[in-house]
Amino acid sequence: MEYKEIMDSLKAGEYKPVYFLHGAEAYFMDSIADYIERHLLEESQKAFNQTVLYGRDLPSAQPLIDAARRYPMMAERQLIILREAQELKDLATLSKYVEQPMDSTVLVILHKHKRLDMRSGLAKALKKSPKVVLFESKKLYDNQIAGWIEQEVRRRGLLIVPEASELMAEYLGTDLSRIAGELEKLALNLPKGKTIDQAAIERYVGISREYNPFELQKALARGEREKVWRIVQYFRANPRTAPMQLVVASLYGFYSKLLKFLALRQMSERDLLQAMGLRSTYFLREYREAAKRYGRRDVERAIALLQEYDLKSKGVGFNSSAPGAQGELLRELVWKLLFVRHLG
What we know:
Elements: H1 3-11, E1 18-23, H2 26-39, H3 43-49, E2 50-54, H4 62-68, E3 78-83, H5 95-99, E4 105-112, H6 121-128, E5 132-137, H7 142-155, E6 159-160, H8 162-172, H9 176-189, E7 195-196, H10 198-204, H11 213-222, H12 225-237, H13 244-264, H14 269-276, H15 284-293, H16 296-313, H17 325-338
Parallel strand pairs: 1-4, 1-5, 2-3, 3-4, 6-7
Helix pairs in contact: 1-2, 7-8, 7-9, 11-12, 11-13, 11-15, 12-17, 13-15, 13-16, 16-17
C-alpha cells in the first residue's frame, strides 16, 4: 500500500491487525505509527492496552508474540508498537504470528533505515496475509522535495509560491521530519488560505530571501556583479547561513541543468520540463536567461570548477579547516564562475 492510501484508511477508522513499516525514510513510518498511537485508543484505555517495545531490548521475538496474543482489558483492541525492529535478532520468527494475528491486537512494527529482505520467509508471510499492511518507506529524490513541500502545505490549508518551496528544499535538504517541523511552524503562524512567500520563509524559518544560493545563481546567470559580491560577502560574514558545500551543491545542480537545457532547448516546452525534471515553466525562465550568457563549453568549465572546489572544501589539496578558508574558497570560486567565459 502507498502512504496516502494507508493514512486515508486510518482516518476512516479502518485498522489492520499488523502494520510492518520498513525502509530508508523514517518520516512516513513515524507518521503512520504516531497517527495510530494518537487515535486507536482513548486516553483512559492506554494504561492497560498500549505497549511500546524496542528491538534492542528484547532477548527474542517471543515476548512480543506473547504480548500480541493477549486480550485487551476493557477495550475492543490493544496496541503494541515495536520500534527498532531491525535490532531484533530473531525477527524472522514473527512469520508464524503474522500468518494468524489476533484481530483484537494492532501490532505496529517499525523496521527503520533499511529495507526488509523481500526474499525472506517473513516478507513472504507479510505479503501473503490479508490482515497485514506492508509498507516500504522510500527516500525522496532531491528533485521531489519541493513538490512534496507543496503537497504538505496544501494539506495544512495553505499555498506556497514556487520560489519559496524551492528555497526550503534547497536549505533543508531531504530531511522530511525537519521540513515538516518548519511547515508546522508556518501553519501555526499563518491563517488558513494564506500564500507562503519568501518573506514568510525568512520570518518564520529564518532563510534570507535576498541572500541565498538561488539568488546567487540568478545573479551569476545574469552577470550581475554587484549583487554577486554582496551575496558572497554576506555568506562569508555569516558562514552558517550558507556553508560552502550547500552553495556548491546548489550551483552544481543549476549548471548541470543548464547544460541539459542547452542540449535540449529545441524540444517543446512540455517535453523540456519533463526531461529537466522541472515542475513549472516558471523555472525555465532562469535557464533561458542563462543560455544567453553561457555556451556549452562555458557551462562545462563551470561544472569542472565546482567539482574542483567541492574537493578543496573537503580538504583535498587544501587546508579547508583554517580560519576563513571556506569563505576565501567561496570568493575565489564565484569569481571564476562570474568570468568563466574568459577562462577557456
